[in-house]
Amino acid sequence: MAADKVDPIHQFHIVKLIPINIGGYDLSFTNSALFMVATVAVASAFLYLTTSSRSLVPGRLQSVSEMAYEFVSNMLRDAAGTQGLKFFPFVFSLFMFVLVANLLGLFPYFFTVTSHIIVTFGLAALVIGTVVVYGFMKHGLGFLKLFVPHGVPVFLLPLVVLIEVISFVSRPVSLSVRLFANMLAGHITLKVFSGFVVSLSALGAVGVAGSVLPLAMAVALTALELLVAFLQAYVFAVLTCMYLNDALHPGH
Amino acid sequence: MADKNGPDGTGETGRGKQHEADIRDDDLERRRRDLEASLATRRPDRLEGKDAKASSVAGYGQALKLSSEFIAGIVVGVGLGWFLDRMAGTSPWGLIVGLLLGFGAGVLNVLRSAGVVAEFGQGDKTRDPKD
């Protein structure tokens, strides 16, 4: 009876808020879309409001914005060199979107946008698409040198190139799976432990006393999730920088 | 304490007005050196403590990273093979070859993200330090 009330997967259900159907395609405005809009709104509003005073000596909130800026720009410069800074708006937007989406997902009753693989895969496909398009634009067919390692015997080359191509294609998959799996697993664990608190306290006085243990666990997990939210946004941005480096300097 | 650098250890017998700035600099220098020395004694401890605490979380992250790299290689290899099978009707050979190649790519991904194998397109050349 208590089991059907505590459904750890229920939080990931997509609910249509405003049904929209254009030309046979379902383009409804869902709760996922709502939280994407909220994510963009929160991130933009935060950055805009905290930097609007433009004081030379930054206040607390302004220095948070400046830290985020410097953090991403240093990361990009380390991974892709100064040439990579032309991708700064792209990487910074990605970083802020993933970070704010992860953080918003930590609020109770909020929807976690990044816990759906199609969202994270969309972001990763955007990254790899940028890498491929920019690589071919800048280097032409020389971009294909990326798949040909130096010093490989000619008779092994077809095999090695095939494996390198698969390895390249698997990058967006591993990038998106990592973010999605971390958020999904974290939220399910959190929900399960919180569910234990509810189920146990229904058992009477002993249950209420015993429910302190899962409650403590849930508190600890929330702290861990906060760390994971930052870490995964960071990892996503770092890997984006590394892949952009391949587009800028293939064959190095 | 390093009294050689103290205000009295400057070798001056008297404190003329013209030496006051020098003496103040000297004093500042000594205090800065003291601060640096005491910071240097504290810094390694702090870093070590941080490492020990962060190592389990970092290890978890590393494990997840490597396993996702490996699985992604296999999934993409199998997916490509399956897709070719569907297009060309060569079932099951595309799947088999794709699985094997995907396995190879997965191993390559893991070794690459562990930093054992050179990055994309680098081969055995040493990396350009300016990039």
Blueprint (SSEs and pairs):
The complex is a heterodimer of chains A (252) and B (131).
Chain A: E1 16-18, E2 21-22, E3 25-26, E4 29-30, H1 31-51, H2 60-80, H3 88-105, H4 117-139, H5 157-201, H6 205-210, H7 212-248
Antiparallel strand pairs in A: 1-4, 2-3
Helix pairs in contact in A: 1-2, 1-3, 2-3, 2-7, 3-7, 4-5, 4-7, 5-7
Chain B: H1 20-88, H2 93-113
Helix pairs in contact in B: 1-2
Region (Disordered) (chain B): 1-55
Biased composition (Basic and acidic residues) (chain B): 14-53
Function (chain B): A possible function for this protein is to guide the assembly of the membrane sector of the ATPase enzyme complex.
Task: Explain how this protein is built.
- Chain A has seven helices and four strands.
- With 252 residues, chain A is mostly helical.
- Chain A has one domain (2-248).
- In chain A, strands 1-4 form a two-stranded antiparallel ribbon. In chain A, strands 2-3 form a two-stranded antiparallel ribbon.
- By secondary structure, chain B is mostly helical.
- Chain B has two domains: 12-45; 54-114.
- Chain B is built from two helices and no strands.
- Chain B has helices spanning 20-88, 93-113.
- The longest helix of chain B has 69 residues, at 20-88.
- Mean pLDDT of chain B is 72; it is low at 1-6, 46-52 and 124-131.
- The chains are: A mainly alpha (252), B mainly alpha (131).
- At the A-B interface, helix 5 and helix 7 of A face helix 1 and helix 2 of B.
- Chain A: Keywords: ATP synthesis, Cell membrane, CF(0), Hydrogen ion transport, Hydrolase, Ion transport, Membrane, Transmembrane, Transmembrane helix, Transport.
- Chain A: Key component of the proton channel; it plays a direct role in the translocation of protons across the membrane.
- Chain A: It is a multi-pass membrane protein.
- Chain A: It comes from Mesorhizobium amorphae CCNWGS0123.
- Chain A: Its main location: membrane.
- Chain B: A possible function for this protein is to guide the assembly of the membrane sector of the ATPase enzyme complex.
